[in-house]
Design goal:
Layout (H helix, E strand, L loop, with lengths): L2 H14 L22 H8 L3 H8 L8 H10 L4 H11 L17 H9 L5 E4 L5 E4 L1 H7 L17 H7 L1 H4 L5 H18 L4 H13 L1 H8 L8 E8 L3 E11 L7 E6 L5 H12 L14
Length: 294
């Protein structure tokens, strides 16, 4: 992923989304040749020189100040997540030769925590949304069509974003697949801006771009959004519809690993469905094998 071209593409996409009338600019009767704001209009509104702004769209961001980035973000009406993404693209981390990718693993203590969450579906994910581990109920809720041991093999490990676009069984879990796909791509964009050196992340994006037209179309729109909590509307083939809240919890001392857990509001039909899924999914001790620390 080339941070300079990503910066230019992101700015162009956001400039095209702002209508002149939205920012108080009068437009003549003739048809405009560009969607959204022209470069010179944006530069004027942001109080920066057209030369300076053009250099940014060309990916030449060396020496750009916080005040300039903030002015552009305000003019483009960027969200907090989009502003953070703009800063990541304008100031990429110092490039070093990226180390060879190392397979991540959930720690024994994290696996023990998952096992103890007997009534709560939960998974441990890395920054790319690779599934490092899941508990019995998390596996039953999201991917019972996959082998229980799948997260233990790094080369064939489930990835929630890849499954969302390429796995029909997983796609069918979501009542509003379009919204879930948009959120997944928006989150992946944010991660990609923060970690341009992540070779495995770039390979995931390339794989999805080749094999999914839906992913390619969404990726080209440059959505950016973090999603740490909320609700998901799911449909499980065994227990029916579920409306579940979810929380992402960062695991200290790990390289961007997080635990995601799902809960239902007590006394609701979703709570009853989740209890039924818990009762019909018999646990076995083999599901959480002991592992050496990594």
């Amino acid at each position: 992923m080339d941070a300079s071209s990503e910066l230019g593409d992101f700015l162009k996409s956001r400039r095209a989304a702002v209508r002149p009338q939205d920012v108080g600019l009068a437009t003549g009767p003739g048809r405009r040749r560009v969607a959204g704001l022209r470069r010179e209009e944006l530069a004027l509104l942001a109080g920066v020189s057209i030369t300076h702004y053009t250099r940014l769209e060309q990916g030449r961001a060396a020496g750009v100040s916080d005040s300039v980035l903030d002015a552009i973000a305000r003019t483009l009406r960027l969200t907090e997540d989009e502003t953070a993404h703009l800063r990541d693209l304008a100031r990429p981390a110092v490039r070093r030769r990226p180390p060879a990718p190392r397979a991540a693993h959930a720690s024994p203590s994290a696996r023990q925590l998952l096992a103890a969450m007997t009534d709560v579906p939960a998974l441990i994910l890395d920054r790319r949304s690779d599934v490092l581990a899941w508990n019995r109920l998390g596996h039953a809720l999201l991917a019972p069509h996959l082998p229980w041991e799948a997260p233990d093999t790094p080369a064939a490990r489930p990835n929630l974003v890849r499954m969302l676009f390429l796995d029909g069984h997983y796609q069918a879990r979501y009542a509003d697949w379009q919204e879930e796909a948009h959120l997944a791509v928006a989150s992946l964009r944010l991660v990609a801006g923060r970690h341009p050196e992540d070779r495995a992340l770039a390979e995931l994006i390339g794989h999805l771009s080749i094999h999914s037209d839906e992913f390619t179309a969404l990726w080209a729109r440059h959505p950016v959004r973090t999603c740490t909590s909320g609700t998901k509307s799911l449909h499980h083939p065994a227990v029916g519809a579920l409306e579940l809240s979810f929380e992402n919890l960062c695991l200290p001392g790990t390289a961007d690993q997080r635990l995601i857990a799902y809960t239902a509001e007590p006394g609701t039909p979703s709570d009853a469905a989740l209890r039924l899924l818990t009762a019909t999914t018999a646990p076995t001790e083999r599901q959480l094998p002991a592992r050496d620390a990594h």
